[in-house]
């Protein structure tokens, strides 16, 4: 596995892989790699891609400087995981290399999908994500890009980014990974105490409760909210939406939908989602 920091090397190596007949599989990450990231690398390898993992904690997607400062950073362990998972290239660009003009840099507006849920509660977050992902796409060049369904709204935003701006990138969604007790894997889980972790199970339990019944969207949303509150989660939202557009569903809607939940436990913001049926 090659490890590079410079954008010109990364661009040239990806180009070399394509010239050698390989499809490049891009796995964008902010580090603190865990089994969820490993699943992204595995998915790329299963499709025969040469895997390029990027590791960059993107300051422009954090609306809260304290959240950025607290974001876990485990570069040595990340190197081991990427190597063991079979990545071909690990890219660790500096903030100066990615954003030479800092806060004055050009920004990609993430559009209508970004205004609700995480976008409403974290102003500018998805513009920061869309901007950095656009840059990753440009430097890497034509590729398949793997994103976890854990960040379901992000996946929808990235699909729209690729389609609307015409990137030569196939966006692949990879199912989210859970601990055996149901907690969705997230780099943020490391900040929870054992008690907080137990409370955080309220999110996956809420989704399981919603998936176990077929009911109007608002009833499922209310059911999830109650389960989360009972578990001690400070609820940010608990809603059932159209799986492609994330538009709210009225109670006449019937069929497959997506349940999205978010909440705060011990000051840590957690999100989760899953398929449900409304009717
Ligand atoms: O999901 C993440 O880790 C980040 O939002 C991403 C896609 C790597 C962009 O910084």
Write the layout of secondary structure elements.
Elements: E1 2-4, H1 7-19, E2 24-29, H2 35-46, E3 50-55, H3 65-70, H4 75-85, E4 89-91, H5 95-98, H6 118-121, H7 125-140, E5 143-148, H8 152-165, E6 169-174, H9 194-211, H10 217-231, E7 234-241, E8 255-265, E9 268-278
Parallel strand pairs: 1-4, 2-3, 2-5, 3-4, 5-6
Antiparallel strand pairs: 7-8, 8-9
Residues 28-30, 58, 61, 129, 132-133, 151, 154 line the site of pantoate.
Characterise this structure.
- The protein is an alpha/beta fold and 279 residues long.
- It has two domains: 2-174, HUPs (Rossmann fold); 187-273, Pantoate--beta-alanine Ligase, Chain: A,domain 2 (2-Layer Sandwich).
- Helices cover 41% and strands 22% of the residues.
- It contains ten helices and nine strands.
- It has helices at residues 7-19, 35-46, 65-70, 75-85, 95-98, 118-121, 125-140, 152-165, 194-211, 217-231, and strands spanning 2-4, 24-29, 50-55, 89-91, 143-148, 169-174, 234-241, 255-265, 268-278.
- Strands 1-4-3-2-5-6 form a six-stranded parallel sheet, sandwiched between helices. The protein has a three-stranded antiparallel sheet with strand order 7-8-9, with helices on one face.
- Helix 8 (152-165) links the parallel strand 5 (143-148) and strand 6 (169-174).
- Helix 7 packs across helix 8.
- The chain is globular.
- The relative contact order is 0.13.
- The mean pLDDT is 97.
- The structure holds pantoate.
Describe the strand arrangement of the main beta sheet, using strand numbers. 1-4-3-2-5-6
Order of helical and strand elements: EHEHEHHEHHHEHEHHEEE
Number of β-strand runs:
9
CATH topology of the largest domain: Rossmann fold
Could you estimate the helical fraction of the residues in percent?
40-55%
Q: Which radius of gyration do the C-alpha atoms yield?
A: 19 Å
Name every ligand kind in the structure.
pantoate
Write down the CATH class of the largest domain: Alpha Beta
What's the CATH architecture name of the largest domain? 3-Layer(aba) Sandwich
The tally of helices reads 10
Question: How much of the residues is beta strand, in percent?
Answer: 15-25%
| Poorly predicted regions | none
């Amino acid at each position: 596995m090659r490890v590079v920091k410079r954008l010109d090397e990364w661009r040239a190596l990806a180009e070399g892989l394509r010239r050698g007949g390989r499809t490049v599989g891009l796995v964008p990450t902010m580090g603190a790699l865990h089994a969820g990231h490993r699943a992204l690398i595995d998915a790329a390898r299963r499709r025969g891609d040469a895997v390029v993992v990027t590791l960059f904690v993107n300051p422009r997607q954090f609306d809260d400087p304290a959240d950025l400062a607290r974001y876990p950073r485990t570069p040595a362990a990340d190197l081991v995981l990427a190597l063991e998972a079979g990545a071909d290239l690990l890219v660790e660009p500096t903030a100066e290399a990615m954003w030479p003009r800092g806060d004055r840099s050009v920004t990609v507006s993430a559009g209508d999908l970004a205004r609700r849920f995480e976008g409403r509660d974290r102003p500018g977050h998805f513009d920061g994500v869309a901007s950095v992902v656009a840059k990753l796409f440009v430097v890497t060049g034509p590729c398949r890009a793997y994103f976890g369904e854990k960040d379901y709204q992000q996946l929808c935003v990235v699909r729209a980014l690729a389609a609307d701006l015409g990137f030569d990138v196939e966006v692949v969604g990879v199912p989210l990974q859970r601990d055996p007790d149901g907690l969705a894997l997230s780099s943020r889980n490391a900040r929870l105490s054992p008690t907080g972790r137990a409370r955080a199970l309220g999110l996956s339990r809420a989704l399981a409760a919603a998936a176990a019944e077929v009911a109007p969207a608002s009833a499922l949303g209310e059911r999830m909210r109650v389960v989360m509150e009972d578990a001690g989660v400070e609820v940010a939202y608990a809603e059932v939406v159209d799986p492609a557009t994330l538009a709210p569903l009225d109670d006449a809607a019937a069929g497959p939908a997506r349940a999205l939940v978010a909440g705060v436990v011990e000051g840590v913001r957690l999100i989760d989602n899953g398929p449900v049926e409304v009717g």
